[in-house]
Amino acid sequence: MNNQKRSLTPRSVIQLILFIIVIPFLPLLISWSWDWWEAWVYGFINVLGWVISRAMAAKRNPDLITERAQFMKHENVFNWDKILAPLVGFGGGLITLVIGIDKLLNWSPAYSMLIKIIALAFILIGFIWGSYALIQNRFFSGMVRIQNDRGHHVITSGPYRWMRHPGYTGAILSFLATPLFLDSVWAFIPAVFLVIMLVLRTSLEDKVLQDELEGYSEYAEKVRYRLFPGVW
To answer: What CATH number did the domain enclosing 31 receive?
Structure first.
């Protein structure tokens, strides 16, 4: 409990407000299109999804919340992730920033309702799948590191039975569907950039785990695919 209290510094609270509330509602804040129902739905999905998933994760693995709250503060983080992790966070904000500007300047035409419904389904699937991975994996850190201080070992339950990095899979699905749901062709540019960063991070993280985490190489032989079964 004391560790969790120490993790709630003014800086961490500001970061939570920025990433959990401001960024999801950025399209509305930029465009001032308050009757834009899709943007309201997207914002509330992000906020509620974060609150519910973290509450469930905290109930199952209380120390995981403290671990994730130490973002960019751990000492044994790989140098490449000190670059990639912030880029991923920046990319997520860039998507909603571009969508808001796109709406304000009316750059992109609206997609059909059918496309929006399909995109919304993929956003929800991505959130649920990523949350499932978070809840199942008590080592689901915000930075790539071998967590010897927390008894790091291989997780094989839940979505990890079918893919080695299901959290990234869920994120990719949501990021690629967001421009479709919120009517922004231009937002595909940061979305694709973000997918590239996640694929690169997955590759580097997987190599680290195979080299340094006991039992992971054997697990990788059984669960062959990193992100998408049958693909990679």
So the answer is: 1.20.120.1630
